[in-house]
Amino acid sequence: MYAIIENGSKQYKVCEGDVVRVEKLKAEVGASVEFKVVMVSDDNGIKAGADVANAKVSGKVEAQDKFKKIVVFKYKAKKNERKKQGHRQPFTAVKIEKISL
């Protein structure tokens, strides 16, 4: 059984027991969170739309961290303009505990 959840204008495929890195959430480590369900697939087939209106995916926040640094380098040719920046996107690691219909 798996579900497609939505968070931060992105969709994630999750199963029970998965650890998913989603956009940063305002939640403490150890807190429980719930996600909006877009689709659920189980033994009976695929359900979406009104069929999953009351479905819930709950998880537990495991960490608040940042991804690995990426380098952003901008330059303009023949103008001697160069700008080097680093960026680390924050994320929340959530362990999926239960998918219920």
Could you give a quick summary of the protein structure above?
This protein has strands at 2-7, 10-14, 19-23, 32-42, 45-48, 56-66, 70-76, 81-87, 90-100. By secondary structure, the protein is an all-beta fold. Strands 1, 2, 3, 4, 5, 6 and 9 form a 7-stranded antiparallel sheet that branches. A two-stranded antiparallel ribbon has the order 7-8.
Describe it for me?
This protein is mostly beta strands. It has one domain (2-100). Helices cover 0% and strands 66% of the residues. The chain contains no helices and 9 strands. The strands form 2 sheets. Strands 1, 2, 3, 4, 5, 6 and 9 form a 7-stranded antiparallel beta sheet that branches. A two-stranded antiparallel sheet has the order 7-8. The model has no long low-confidence stretch (mean pLDDT 94).
Structural key phrases:
101 residues, mainly beta, seven-stranded antiparallel sheet, two-stranded antiparallel ribbon
In terms of DSSP E residues, the strand content is: over 45%
Mean pLDDT across all residues, rounded? 94
What is Rg? 18 Å
- Please report the number of helical segments: 0
Helical percentage: under 10%
Number of domains: 1
What is the global morphology?
Answer: elongated
| First and last CA, distance | 11 Å
Class per helix and strand makeup: mainly beta
Low-confidence stretches: none
Tell me the major beta sheet: 7 strands, antiparallel
Please provide the ordered H/E string of secondary-structure elements.
Answer: EEEEEEEEE
Assembly status:
single chain
Per DSSP E runs of 2 or more residues, the count of β-strands stands at 9
